[in-house]
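Holo prediction — adenosine-5'-triphosphate.
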Amino acid sequence: MSQPIIEFKNVQKRFGDTTIFDDFSFKVEENEIVSIIGPSGSGKSTLLRILMTLEGIDGGYINVAGESLWHMLWNDRYVPASNKHLHKMREQLGMVFQHFNLFPHMTVKRNITEAPMRVKGLSRQDAEESAEALLELVGLADKAESYPNDLSGGQKQRVGIARALAMRPAILLLDEITSALDPELVDEVLDVIRNLAKEQSFTMLLVTHEMYFAREISDRVCFFDKGKIVEEGVPEDIFSAPREERTQAFLNAYLGQ
Ligand SMILES: Nc1ncnc2c1ncn2[C@@H]1O[C@H](COP(=O)(O)OP(=O)(O)OP(=O)(O)O)[C@@H](O)[C@H]1O
């Protein structure tokens, strides 16, 4: 069997006295689409932020594409890998955030071209050509010169997706990308991800509350609670519940409440 593209092994993570992961192990295979669903505060975002190297870990190890993500064991202590290694690993990962995190003082196009030029050393012309193609892909070809504040939430998030894709990541991390949107704007963002899932082959790890969507596009839906994957696969009856009751039904089913 091929090596997983993401592997957490016995990972520990604490914030002060609060333990988020005690002994967390989890694998994602190359080109797999995995959704993570779970209660608020259970550590789902932390999982993605650790992968994106926005948070460190307190124990265990994480491999991405066969290489240690950013901690190396040296004389029984965890030390950060070099900045060079960190950059190399980060290039494989793209993340889309719940609150978009676009640079407000840059045009849409510049939001997308900045990292490929600075981090990957792409020429302006190549970066702009790629940005234009990505804006076309997310249905915003006419917004290249607009500023984020002139866009709707759904449009901002589609720019966020284009920005993540501009780095040509092997792995795309999506952190509740529709949670900050008005309900009528959710579908335009999910449609972009649906198309990506259908047409491109890369690995996606999503944290989402959109359970139908998760089931539709994922190879695996995982339920995450108290720092552990407690079950994989979502039972059918969860999806027959009315939309607003679905999350609760799901949680109740797994927490035995
Ligand atoms: N930088 C931080 N410093 C201290 N505590 C943190 C930090 N980041 C997260 N936490 C805490 O860790 C726990 C897990 O947070 P996380 O955001 O990963 O949960 P989540 O499952 O994504 O929740 P939600 O669905 O509400 O976004 C929470 O109790 C949160 O308050």
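READOUT: The chain has a mean pLDDT of 85.
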